[in-house]
Description:
- The chain is mainly beta and 101 residues long.
- 0% of the residues lie in helices and 49% in strands.
- The chain has no helices and 10 strands.
Amino acid sequence: MAFQRVASVSDIPPGVTKVFEVGDRAVAVCNVSGDLYAIEDVCTHDGSSFEQGELDGCEIECPRHGARFDVRDGSATELPAVVPVDTFAVRVEGDDIEVDV
């Protein structure tokens, strides 16, 4: 595993989620009030992307069936999902957002 640059800090303002390909994985980077979190971009309920999902505080909602996940630790917080999503370490180096996948 190694940190890889995905975006600039200005690319993901607070309340926004953006999806990036990092290696062979799709990763959703979420800005929660200035804190950045990265989760695998695959809803564990049905495999949908979070790209069109709504970020509400620390939770992201899958746009397909409404499953919700805590972006801080990947835990499923709302049915129909019960399995957590993978999370990844995020760091900021200067203006670069980097994710460890």
